[in-house]
Structure formats: structure tokens, C-alpha cells
Specification:
By secondary structure, the protein is mainly alpha-helical. The chain has one domain. The chain contains four helices and two strands, in the order H-H-H-E-E-H. A two-stranded antiparallel ribbon has the order 1-2. The chain is globular, with a radius of gyration of 15 Å.
């Protein structure tokens, strides 16, 4: 995915860029503020958890992790179980850390878009 000041290199890049704009617009309308990637992962985590309450700082970090694990489910993580409190647990099956940080972000955005499409949100 190109940076904002770069033009897309391919049709796939252009489609991902446009879909990413749709995701951000949806989340902006939902939350009433411009979301960053962590905010979007947090929202995915909350949706996947399915529990509505006030979360502690540590729980919010856990929700972002759930969001990340969910978008990479069966690629980098596998779902193992829900605990007695309803929290989702995953085990790593791959490694994203070997990618350059820019490539990591592009891959995350690609999978976020995929999650929004699979859930028929965009």
C-alpha cells in the first residue's frame, strides 16, 4: 500500500487504498473521530469479543491484540479457545516480525480491509 503522498503502483494498490479510505470513513462515522490503525484493531477486537463494558488500559491492549490475531487468523495465528470470561485466545503459527515495518503495516491494512468485507461492513 502506498503512503499518502505516493500514487498507487498497481490496480491492486489502488483498490486497497480506496478500500482503506472506506474503512477509515466507516470507523470515523461510527466513533465520531478519525481512527488510526490501533483504533481500528481495537474496534475489531471489541466486535470479536462481543462484550460491552468499560475496559482497563491493559484490556484495551488485549483487545487490539485480539483484533490483530483475528485479522490474521489461519495465517499468523490460530484460534484456540474462549476462556471462562469470554476472552478469545490465539496461538502464533507464523511471524510477521521478519517483514519491514512498512510492509507489516501494508499487510495489516490489507487484512483489516478483508475483515471489514467479510463482515459486510464495507
Amino acid at each position: 500500500m502506498p503512503l499518502l503522498n505516493e500514487s498507487p503502483k498497481s490496480e491492486k494498490d489502488l483498490q486497497l487504498f480506496n478500500d482503506w479510505v472506506k474503512v477509515r470513513a466507516y470507523v470515523n462515522d461510527f466513533l465520531g473521530r478519525r481512527p488510526d490503525l490501533n483504533g481500528i484493531l481495537y474496534l475489531i477486537g471489541m466486535t470479536e469479543l462481543g462484550i460491552v463494558k468499560t475496559f482497563s488500559k491493559e484490556e484495551k491492549e488485549d483487545l487490539m491484540h485480539i483484533g490483530l490475531c483475528r485479522i490474521f487468523q489461519d495465517v499468523l495465528y490460530t484460534f484456540t479457545h474462549r476462556d471462562e470470561e469470554g476472552w478469545l485466545h490465539f496461538e502464533p503459527i507464523g511471524d510477521i516480525d521478519r517483514l519491514h515495518i512498512r510492509d507489516q503495516e501494508a499487510l495489516i491494512k490489507e487484512h483489516v480491509v478483508k475483515w471489514f468485507k467479510e463482515n459486510e461492513i464495507i
